[in-house]
Amino acid sequence: MAKKFSELRAAMTPEARSQASERAKAMLGEMPLHELRQARELSQKMLADVLHVQQPSIAKMEKRTDMYLSNATQPHPSDG
Which pTM value belongs to this model? Predict the structure, then answer.
C-alpha cells in the first residue's frame, strides 16, 4: 500500500524538508500563471477577487507568454 505524503515528509530529515521546500518554491516561480491558477483550482474570477482586480485583467496576464509567478512579484522595469 502506498504511504501518505505526510508520512513520507515526517520521515525526512529537517535538512531534506528544507531542501524540498526550496525546490518547490523555485518550481512554483517558474510555473506559468494559468497553470498555477488551475493547479489551485481557482477560476479567473476567483483569482481576480483575491487580487482586487477585474477578471479581464487576469485573462490578459495569462495571455502573456512571459507571465510567471516570479515575474508577477517583481517590479516591471517601466515602473521604476
Answer: 0.53
Q: How far apart are CA 65 and CA 79, in angstroms?
A: 20
Which residues have C-beta within 8 Å of that of residue 44, sequence separation ≥ 6?
A: 37, 55, 58, 59, 62
70 vs 20: which has the higher pLDDT: 20
CA distances in angstroms from 1 to 9, 22, 27, listed in the order given: 17, 29, 29
Q: Give the type of residue at 38.
A: Q
Band the pLDDT of 67: cuts 50, 70, 90: low
Closest CA to 59 of 33, 26, 22: 33
Q: Count the neighbouring beta carbons within 10 Å of the beta carbon of residue 58.
A: 23
> Is 67 in a helix, a strand, or coil?
coil
